[in-house]
Amino acid sequence: MNVIINGERRDVAPRTTVADIVRSLTDAAGGIAVAVNDHVVPKADWAETLITENDRVDVLTAVQGG
Amino acid sequence: MVLETAGRSPKTVRDPLVIAGHTFGSRLITGTGGAPSLRVLEDALVTSGTEMTTVALRRVAPGPAGSVWDVLHRNGIRPLPNTAGCFTAAEALRTARLAREALETDWIKLEVVADEHTLLPDPVELLDAAEQLVDDGFTVLPYTNDDPVLARRLEQLGCAAVMPLGAPIGSGLGIRNPHNIELIVEQAEVPVIIDAGIGTASEAALAMELGCDAVLLATAVTRAQDPVLMAAAMRDAVRAGRAARLAGRIPVRRYAQASSPALD
User: Fold this and answer.
1) Looking at chain B, which residue has its C-alpha nearest residue A39?
2) Dihedral sign from CA coordinates of A6, B98, A63, B216
3) What is the CATH number of domain A2-61?
4) Rounded to an integer, what distance in angstroms lies between the CA atom of residue B200 and that of residue B224?
5) Could you give the angle at the alpha carbon of B137 between the alpha carbons of B28 and B80, nearest 5°?
6) Annotated catalytic residue, options B109, B235, B239, B242
7) CB burial of residue A10 (10 Å; 0-12, 13-18, 19+)
8) Residue B156 has pLDDT above 80, yes or no
9) Which domains are present in chain B?
10) What is the pLDDT of residues B42-89, one digit of tens each?
11) In the A/B pair of chains, how many CB contacts fall below 8 A?
């Protein structure tokens, strides 16, 4: 299944969840937010939110700035 | 030390900064961008005495362990996420909502800039974004031009503070229009925080002497040759400027006024 994660096209298994994608990118305990197709997915919903073909998933964190 | 002001309770140098009902002992708000390392950043933040500092939100990238989030968390410094890099209200809203989720705060430093070259705020997009974010329950601290009318409009929309620039971000040009900053201070009923342009300690002191409630700066500290020493200088400058403002400076005269008695 083709999806775009943080701007890069990736192949992921069917029934991949938002939580799976976050775990694949970072082991940070906090300070992470996720948007799927520009809509914020609350942390409480990560484990139940399934990714579908061609979804754009952005996983963001706080960085130095401002 | 007490300064009586008409219709308001006396102000003292120990008064906390109050933004949206939250009190801060320090009137220096810092940024985190540009520091040579997280270790230097941490030393500078702690030395500055700041209680709130800005962070940006970006895609997770593989890298060394440790994060700015950890630094703020272990030092009890409140994170103030920004919408840096946004050019439209829609982009700012998306970033603010992600920041709220990531950092578990509904406070947002709203930046909506017009172009990469000046990074000056785009007033039309800024007002649009501020209105939508206030409606969405955010505590909005907008980075704005040194324009008293725009500052008033932002306050009327429900922003928790107004943050006029002294000069463009990272320029170190100081406060280019002190008169406008004074006009903004005179009319504002919310805290006025000078944001951007400060290059050295005297300029931070000037902001406070003009009546600003706080100073927000990043580059002046993080890109100084000795960031930790500059953080100390800024801490002291903000305190000194605030004290001078409350003390009431002498009027400026064209000619001398002898400070010793005339010869007998």
Assistant:
1) B94
2) positive
3) 3.10.20.30
4) 9
5) 25
6) B109
7) middle
8) yes
9) 16-57+70-246 (3.20.20.70)
10) 999 999 999 999 999 999 887 666 788 889 989 999 999 999 999 999
11) 95
> Which of B60, B101, B136, B215 should we substitute to test contact with A (largest number of A Cβ atoms within 10 Å)?
B60
Put simply, the answer to whether B55 touches A38 (Cβ < 8 Å) is: no
Q: Note which residues in 73-92 of chain B have CB less than 8 A from chain A.
A: 73, 79-82, 84
Q: Could you tell me if B50 lies within 8 Å of chain A, comparing CB atoms?
A: no
Number of neighbours of residue A36 by Cβ within 10 angstroms = 18
Token pair for B219: 């580059």
Question: In Å, how far are B4, B12, B148, B165, B167 from B184, measured between CA atoms?
Answer: 21, 21, 5, 11, 15
What is the residue whose two structure tokens read 């580059």? B219
Q: Using a CB-CB distance cutoff of 8 angstroms, which residues of chain B are in contact with residue A31? A: 67, 69, 102-103
What are φ and ψ of residue B181, in 5° steps?
A: -60, -40
Please report, for chain A, the start and end positions of each structural domain, with discontinuous segments joined by +: 2-61
Tokens read off for B16: 């906390």
